[in-house]
Amino acid sequence: MPDYAIERIEARILDIPTVRPHKLSFGTIQRQSPVIVQVFLRGGAMGFGEAATIGGASWNEESPESILHAVDHCLGPALMGQDGARFEALLARMDRACRGNLFAKAAVEMALIDAVARARGLPAWQLLGGKLHDRLPLGWTLASGHVEQDVREAHDLLDRGLHAFFKIKIGARAPADDVAHVCEIARAMQGRAPLTVDVNQAWDGATARQHLPALVDAGVRLIEQPVARWNVAALQQLSMQLAGGLVMADESVCTPFEAMALAAGRACSVFSLKVAKHGGLLRTREVAAIARAADIGWYGGTMLETSIGSAASAHVFATLPGANHGCELFGPQLLVEDVVAHPMPREGGALLLPDGPGFGLEVDVRQLDRFDRRRARPVLVDMGARA
Ligand SMILES: O=C(O)C[C@H]1C=CC(=O)O1
Ligand SMILES: [Mn+2]
């Protein structure tokens, strides 16, 4: 039996520019700052984990800096010397050492699962229940803020068979302007691909009730987090009101307890699942189980992770039964450069699950060093290098 005792945990922040500005309701991002965790086991195995958030501490309470602090000062010390293969026991230990901080816990749990899976020569999905899917329809987010650019981007990605559907980010402008923006894109897409909008909590209940029907009429099928995360009553009303459109919870559904409350209140039709906000791969499965029991569909969400966090997410999504609406694990394509030798394969608008030990990736440590925030010099990148 290999020695799985946890010997060392290292974490660092990377700063990687995006291929174009990415506009969301709460601001515009031009770089991502994922926290990369490495767990070293006494027997020699090592695994990678990642927690990315968006816009510093704008998406929720955690930021790259708070995640790094939690891993270095709370979670890492709590796990030293423990059996790295006892995932549930380690999650309980992390919960005792540190309240909340779900993104940080997710990054550590991810690295543990990767390390143990690699030590056993198994793909991570094998430790997560076995895979049901080899591929998932892959979405892309249109968030340049410009109709012409968004439409050009969408047609090009469809023509090249890289993506199957699109999400439009709104909520930064006046609601009527957002509606006009989405309607223009929908018209120009001529029904070539399904559309989602993500309001990222920007509207109150009355604004959402007034403006969402026009988006559904324009052909938008999924309505993601139109109101504040606490506003479950408004989600409930919208779910009843919007025939033809499905309300999807994102920021509202993090813990299994929140999932249970949304399910009990029939507040949405779909959960956007994200490994980081649920606190890891195992908790993602718990939230998905509640969705299934409540006849709620799932969607494979992203926090715009590099290939490390994206592949880990793909491994757990691949194990999930129930109705799914595809995934949006396009983070690596939004970043100017990747941190792995070979990106996850895509084909016919779908993401193919990377098989092979752990998350099935060959991480390029030179790239981690190159984008490491602790480097003194800024990184020079060739902006034309990525599609
Ligand atoms: O869904 C979010 O709230 C965050 C994220 C996912 C895709 C994207 O463009 O932003
Ligand atoms: Mn969202």
TrEMBL record:
What is an annotated GO biological process for this record, any one? amino acid catabolic process
Instruction: Identify which cofactors the protein needs according to its UniProt entry.
Output: Mn(2+)
Listed Gene3D superfamilies? Enolase-like C-terminal domain, Enolase-like, N-terminal domain
Domain Mandelate racemase/muconate lactonizing enzyme C-terminal, by residue range, is 147-245
Annotated NCBIfam families: mucon_cyclo
SMART domains per the UniProt record, alphabetical? MR_MLE
**SUPFAM superfamilies in the record, alphabetically?**
Enolase C-terminal domain-like (SSF51604), Enolase N-terminal domain-like (SSF54826)
Q: Which UniProt keywords apply?
A: Aromatic hydrocarbons catabolism, Isomerase, Manganese, Metal-binding
User: To which pathway does this protein belong?
Assistant: Aromatic compound metabolism
Q: Which organism was this protein described from?
A: Ottowia testudinis
PANTHER family in the record? O-SUCCINYLBENZOATE SYNTHASE, O-SUCCINYLBENZOATE SYNTHASE-RELATED
Q: Which residues form the active site?
A: 169 (proton acceptor), 328 (proton donor)
The beginning of the lineage is:
Bacteria, Pseudomonadati, Pseudomonadota, Betaproteobacteria, Burkholderiales
Instruction: Give one Pfam hit by family name.
Output: MR_MLE_C
Q: Single GO molecular-function term?
A: muconate cycloisomerase activity
Q: What is this protein called?
A: Muconate/chloromuconate family cycloisomerase
Record's family? Belongs to the mandelate racemase/muconate lactonizing enzyme family.
